[in-house]
Design a protein that fits this description.
The protein contains 4 helices and 8 strands. With 165 residues, the chain is an alpha+beta fold. The protein has a single domain, classed as 2,3-Dihydroxybiphenyl 1,2-Dioxygenase, domain 1 (Roll). Strand 6 and strand 7 form a beta hairpin. It is globular.
């Protein structure tokens, strides 16, 4: 049942991202240019079982894992293809199992933030995250977090993409 929930979460995240990226024809004229889906984040009820499912059953490769001071994983990026990832993190009381966020990679983070703010979207100021990536957040009307990011040259996702074979 757990893998079923994970599959539904991944499907829902992909559908939402597709809806966000593919606007109806008339709306495309006002679309913020240069946006692409980079990753979908999931909080895993059973992290180890989810890792086995996504690596062994789905065939995704581990790009990198961030661990806490005790060596426990706090976040793992799994390669789907060169530029697309599944971000997996353990669920807890503050982060219930399911969809965490959708990672959107704009061509120019600063210009995208300015354009979204001009359209009335509340967007946080960019900051450097634990993956050494410049990130900011906005929320859709359903409360889904949209993580806008820019891969700095030394960021872990950039290194993973550059080492893709």
């Amino acid at each position: 049942m757990r893998s079923w929930i994970g599959g539904i979460s991944l499907f829902a995240g992909g559908m939402l991202a597709g809806i966000l990226m593919m606007q109806p024809g008339a709306a495309q004229q006002t679309q913020v240019p240069g946006l692409r889906l980079n990753h979908v984040g999931i909080y895993a009820k059973d992290y180890e079982e989810s890792m086995r499912f996504f690596t062994q059953s789905m065939g995704f490769r581990e790009a990198f894992t961030i661990r806490d001071k005790d060596g426990k994983p706090t976040l793992t990026y799994l390669h789907i293809n060169r530029d697309s990832f599944l971000e997996l993190a353990p669920a807890n009381e503050q982060r219930p199992a399911g969809l965490s966020h959708i990672g959107i990679w704009p061509e120019n983070l600063g210009a995208t933030v300015a354009a979204l703010r001009q359209r009335g979207v509340k967007v946080d100021d960019p900051r450097t995250g634990s993956t050494k990536t410049s990130i900011t957040n906005a929320f859709d009307p359903n409360g889904v977090r949209l993580e806008l990011l820019d891969f700095l040259p030394d960021s872990l996702p950039r290194k993973a993409m550059d080492s893709w074979r």
